[in-house]
Q: What sequence folds into this?
């Protein structure tokens, strides 16, 4: 299983619950790493049912939001 630096994962049935490690998702490097990890979950690890938990996130940039939109 790949290492995830920006995400914490748990399983509930066939759903992967994704919790974001960073409280502020603002800088370009963090956003690129986050995007790569999310896309890896879907494309390489074949996880199709994701539940994104933003409980610990205080700020999210529009660039980070864009990564989430194109994740579909």
A:
């Amino acid at each position: 299983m790949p290492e995830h630096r920006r995400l914490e994962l748990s399983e509930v049935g066939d759903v992967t619950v994704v919790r974001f490690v960073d409280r502020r998702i603002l800088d370009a490097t963090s956003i690129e790493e986050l995007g790569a990890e999310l896309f890896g979950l879907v494309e390489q690890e074949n996880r199709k049912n994701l539940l994104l938990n933003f409980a610990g996130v205080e700020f999210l940039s529009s660039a980070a939001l864009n990564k989430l939109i194109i994740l579909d």
User: Anything to note?
Assistant: The first strand starts at residue 7 and ends at 12. The chain has two helices and five strands. The chain has a mean pLDDT of 93. Helices lie at 28-43, 62-70.
